[in-house]
Amino acid sequence: MKHYGSQVDGTFCEHTVSYVDHITPIPDALDSAQAAGIMCAGFTAYSALKQSEAHIGNWVAIPGAGGGLGHLGQLVNTLNLIYPYLKCVYCLSRRAIAMGLRVVAIDTGEGKRKLCLELGAEKWIDFRESTDLVAEVIAATKGGVHAAIVISGGVRACEQAWSYLRRRG
């Protein structure tokens, strides 16, 4: 059985002793509260991307691409961190592009559109303005995406993702 913070003494302490392999250095320029998001949400999203088994040149849809992970992307990019393991997970869209994947960013709002395109998304679809999101994704990718990493918390985003995946996606 695993134990979490409230069930084990010492988990809320300010200092601890650990093996060096279990420690990730955090630059002084990065506030601990900011780093927490990268280390948690960033790695979760990165893990989903890796498990998708998408390959170079494949399309990946990211519903919710302009949300919290996009914000982390801007933060880490601004700080120009030198730690490659932090930099590689700072934004799901940017990481997908670094892996050679082609990103369809799905979200809403001009600010998010601008952010996603600046981070390298090839296609942008505003789900509020779209009359048929599934058809738009399939048309934009000439047959559907190879993978969908649903960052959005919406049930509809999950349901739609099944419909715009290409065969064997």
Automatic annotation (TrEMBL):
Pfam short name (any one): ADH_zinc_N
InterPro entries: ADH-like_C, GroES-like_sf, NAD(P)-bd_dom_sf
Recorded GO MF terms: alcohol dehydrogenase (NAD+) activity; metal ion binding
Domain Alcohol dehydrogenase-like C-terminal per the UniProt entry, residue ranges: 96-169
Key words, A-Z: Metal-binding, NAD, Oxidoreductase, Zinc
Coiled coil: none
Keyword Metal-binding attached: yes
Cofactor(s) annotated in UniProt: Zn(2+)
CC terms in the record's Gene Ontology section: cytoplasm
Lineage: superkingdom: Eukaryota
Protein name in UniProt: Alcohol dehydrogenase-like C-terminal domain-containing protein
